[in-house]
Design a protein that fits this description.
Layout (H helix, E strand, L loop, with lengths): L1 H62 L8 H8 L6 E4 L5 E5 L3 E3 L9 H11 L11 H13 L10 H9 L7 H17 L2 H11 L1 E4 L5 E3 L1 H9 L8 H9 L4 H4 L11 H20 L5 H9 L18 H22 L9 H17 L3 E4 L3 H14 L13 E8 L5 E5 L17 E2 L5 H11 L8 E3 L3 E2 L5 E2 L10 E3 H7 L3 H14 L4 H5 L23 E2 L1 H12 L3 E2 L5 E5 L5 E4 L5 E2 L3 H17 L5 H8 L9 E6 L6 E6 L3 E8 L10 H19 L17 E6 L8 E4 L2 E4 L4 E6 L17 H8 L8 H4 L7 H12 L11
Parallel strand pairs: 1-6, 3-5
Antiparallel strand pairs: 1-2, 4-5, 6-16, 7-8, 7-21, 9-14, 10-13, 11-12, 15-18, 16-17, 19-20, 20-21, 22-25, 23-24
Helix pairs in contact: 3-9, 3-11, 5-6, 5-7, 9-11, 11-12, 13-14, 15-23, 16-18, 16-21, 17-21, 22-23
GO molecular function: peptidoglycan glycosyltransferase activity; serine-type D-Ala-D-Ala carboxypeptidase activity
Protein name: Penicillin-binding protein 1B
InterPro entries: Beta-lactam/transpept-like, Glyco_trans_51, Glycosyltr_51/Transpeptidase, Lysozyme-like_dom_sf, PBP_transglycosylase
């Protein structure tokens, strides 16, 4: 029994041993396999890491291959390129004003910034600032993984140096290429500049919210002054901690609203919590002791904030705003051109964005903007409107009558001076450059008579129908003082009286002959930058229903006074940056709109407008004020609109053009004498300018007919060449006396029965019928013997002068 038991026991024991060996073997194999796998994984990791690093380095090199490493000097300029005050000057370089910026900033040296503030910003924004070489690799990798996977939130990863690069050199777009360039430039900055230079620059360029005036501020000096009323070198620990917390989110953490008022406690709490975080960061980094941390945290900082103050008001007025606006448009056009974009393809939003960009550039780049404005002339014009503006008031409307005036050099288009309004405190609208109003009859020489002469359709003594007329489609058309003169008036006479009916007929004939309802605009006015509008095709357009600014209308008359050559009116002569480099300089780009012959004929006829004194007493008034004006060759044209809501007068000498508009800001009826009032005011304005710059007026110079003007001998009856012709079975002879008519091309045609533009068969029959014939028309209708009494009566009618109540024109 025992032997059996021993045998069984031995057998069981012998079975257990192999089982244990198996277990140990399995464990051993497993360990070896795991070890092998681990070694293999390590090898793969090393190989993959090496490969990944190689690929990464190659990709990095690819991303920055287009980046030209900047020199130390270039980096110095870029990282220190902060907002600097720009200025505007008169033509002679005398200062007009410093250009106010939306961002207030004062640069300070590192020695004038509190060490507490430097420690605060470093502890909070870049704890490894003193150790790294511009970049913390693990932070960059963490940030890139976060961006690529969307996991881990926004980890940032930017050192102070990288933030400086992003603020001053690159944009804040989130692309790998921008990040690679940021890293490259950060390393380069650390190579060239000390840690103190970097943190000082950062503190000078960073935004810090708003001050107690509601102004946007940047740089720690303005932050210290605007929040606590002291220099950045004198800040206490809690004050330094509060300022150091602002750059992360300036508008959220700033204690002030956009009015400069202290925020409510619930909104102020955001900045206070941020301040406490900064203090803790300083304590954690051992920049301050625990006692300093607790004392600063418990301090009631609210009591240190400055009380609200009024912001600096813009007291520069019309001139400041005008020069800034004109300069903004110049820079905007430059930037659009640089972008390779056609301006006309931009919508309103696109233009607005480019304009905002240009204005910001001007306000913050330390530019010097040299205007064309003559300081003496400008100041004199402002004194004149203050002294003589009362002449415009008539008691017909609400408020006082406003005015806009532009003085322009004919040869260049240079704006020498302007009057934007009578009182900036009453109306800030610039009535010279911006206000758009109906132009009245001042448009007639530019849009109808000038083009018709240029096309050879008429000469100065051609005849135009002036009989009662209706618009096509209905509606009576009248002159300012009558419903028609019941005759065919000459072009010169029609212009002197500023008749509507003759110019209407001429314009309709020109559109029909040229096959274009917008002929004048497309071929003439568009070249002078008159605004595009469907209104140019309206039947009422040549009578002045279209709208323009005083600047635009003055520029149109400059074209005629400058031998038909348009020079765009401009106010900005040159823009230079803070190093003296020229950013922009005006270049003349003349456009020949009318032939020289046409312009000289129009000038000759507009001399008659002023000499006749029919629509304006300007010339007599100006000579009465200053006898020297008798030697000035004045030409010009008046204009009024319905109910005398606008009164215009634009005059030129061979050297300058002076435009004037008067009216209420809200179009309101003025006195029927508003034209004469405007004339009296403009005569005084011109005299005031002459008193300080007589050289501007070209005393003794004359407008002369160009050599290519064709002087045709014409019948005063038909305005065409004298002679005999047959019409409808009768023979007619154009009666005399003969006169000289000026043509720009072709010369006068032979006389014909229907010699003028406009008029019905009945009108022509009545006109020819004024003159008695010796034989019936069928035999010798044109052989006339006109009674002397009829001749005198007709002549008297043409040359009669209206009463004062009839001197207004549309």
């Amino acid at each position: 029994m025992d032997n059996q038991n021993n045998s069984r026991s031995t057998e069981q024991h012998s079975n257990k041993v192999p089982e244990k060996k198996k277990i140990f073997l399995i464990i051993n194999v497993t360990i070896r396999v795991l070890q092998s796998l681990f070694v293999f994984a390590v090898v793969l990791l090393l190989l993959g890491g090496a490969l990944g690093m190689g690929i990464g380095m190659g990709y990095f090199a690819f991303l920055v291959e287009d980046t030209q490493p900047p020199t130390k000097e270039e980096l110095q300029t870029e990282i220190s390129d902060i907002t600097e005050v720009s200025k505007m000057t008169y033509a002679d370089g005398t200062n007009i004003a410093m250009i106010k910026s939306d961002l207030v900033r004062t640069r300070v040296d590192g020695e004038h910034i509190s060490p507490l503030l430097k420690k605060a910003i470093i502890s909070t924004e870049d704890e490894y600032f003193e150790e790294h070489k511009g970049v913390v690799p693990k932070a960059v990798i963490r940030a890139l993984v976060s961006e690529a996977t969307g996991m881990g939130g926004s980890s940032g990863g930017s050192t102070l140096t990288q933030q400086l690069v992003k603020q001053q050199i690159l944009t804040d777009e989130t692309t790998f290429k921008r990040k690679a360039n940021e890293i490259l430039l950060a390393y380069r900055i650390e190579k060239y500049f000390s840690k103190d230079e970097i943190v000082t620059t950062y503190l000078n360029v960073s935004p810090f919210g708003r001050n107690n005036k509601g102004e946007n501020i940047a740089g720690v000096e303005e932050a210290a002054k605007g929040l606590f009323g002291k220099s950045a070198n004198d800040l206490t620990l809690p004050q330094a901690a509060f300022i150091a917390g602002l750059p992360q989110s300036p508008i959220i953490y700033t204690p002030y609203s956009n009015t400069g008022a202290l925020k409510a406690d619930e909104n102020l709490a955001y900045g206070m919590k941020r301040k406490d975080f900064v203090l803790f960061s300083m304590y954690r980094e051992k920049a301050i002791t625990k006692e300093e941390y607790e004392a600063a945290k418990s301090y009631d900082l609210k009591q240190d904030f400055q009380p609200q103050q009024e912001s600096n008001q813009n007291t520069e007025g019309y001139l400041y705003n005008a020069v800034l606006e004109q300069a903004t448009n110049v820079v905007m056009d430059i930037n659009i051109e640089k972008a390779g974009i056609k301006k006309e393809t931009l919508d309103g939003i696109g233009l607005s964005q480019y304009k905002d960009q240009a204005r910001n550039e001007i306000q913050n780049r330390g530019y010097t903007i040299q205007s064309t404005i003559d300081q003496t002339v400008y100041d004199t014009m402002q004194n004149a409107v203050a002294n003589f503006g009362y002449m415009l008031d008539d008691g017909y409307g609400a408020g006082f009558v406003e005015t806009g005036n532009v003085l322009m050099d004919n040869k260049t288009g240079k704006i020498i001076g302007f009057v934007a309004g009578r009182d900036f405190n009453v109306s800030q609208s610039n009535h010279a450059l911006d206000t758009v109003r109906q132009v009245g009859s001042t448009i007639k020489p530019i849009s109808v008579y000038g083009p018709a002469i240029d096309q050879g359709m008429i000469g100065s003594e051609s005849r135009l129908a002036n009989y009662p007329t209706s618009y096509k489609g209905g509606g009576e058309l009248t002159n300012a003082t009558n419903s028609g003169t019941n005759t065919f008036d000459t072009v010169r006479h029609s212009l002197e009286w500023s008749y509507n009916i003759p110019v209407y007929h001429l314009n309709e004939a020109m559109k029909a002959q040229m096959g274009d309802d917008n002929f004048s605009y497309n071929n003439y006015l568009s070249k002078m930058n008159y605004p595009a509008s469907d209104a140019w095709a309206y039947q009422s357009a040549p009578l002045g229903s279209v709208e323009a600014t005083v600047l635009t209308q003055t520029n149109g008359f400059q074209t005629l006074a400058n031998k038909g050559q348009y020079q765009k009116g401009y106010m900005i002569e040159k823009i230079t940056d803070n190093s003296g480099k020229v950013i922009y300089e005006h270049k003349n780009t003349p456009v020949q709109v009318y032939s020289e012959a046409t312009a000289s004929i129009m000038n000759d006829m507009m001399r008659s407008v002023l000499d006749s004194k029919i629509t304006t007493p300007f010339k007599n008034m100006s000579i009465g004020l200053n006898p020297a004006f008798a030697n000035v060759d004045w030409i010009g044209k008046t204009g009024t609109t319905d109910a005398y809501k606008d009164a215009w007068l634009v005059v030129s000498t061979p050297t300058i053009t002076l435009g004037s508009w008067t009216g209420y800001d809200i179009p309101t009826a003025m006195s029927p004498n508003s034209g004469d009032q405007n004339s009296a005011y403009l005569a005084n304005l011109a005299n005031a300018i002459y008193s300080v710059r007589p050289d501007l007026f070209g005393v003794g110079e004359k407008f002369t007919l160009s050599k290519d003007v064709i002087k045709s001998n014409v019948s005063s009856f038909t305005g065409e060449k004298p002679g005999t012709f047959t019409y409808n079975g009768g023979t007619y002879t154009a009666p005399g006396p003969n006169v000289e008519s000026f043509y720009a091309k072709d010369g006068a045609p032979k006389s014909q029965y229907k010699f003028g533009y406009g008029g019905s068969d009945a009108n022509y029959s009545a006109y020819w019928g004024r003159y008695a014939t010796t034989t019936p028309p069928s035999s010798n209708a044109g052989s006339t013997t006109t009674p002397s009494s009829e001749k005198k009566e007709d002549k008297k009618k043409e040359n009669s002068t209206p009463s004062s109540s009839e001197k207004n024109n549309n």
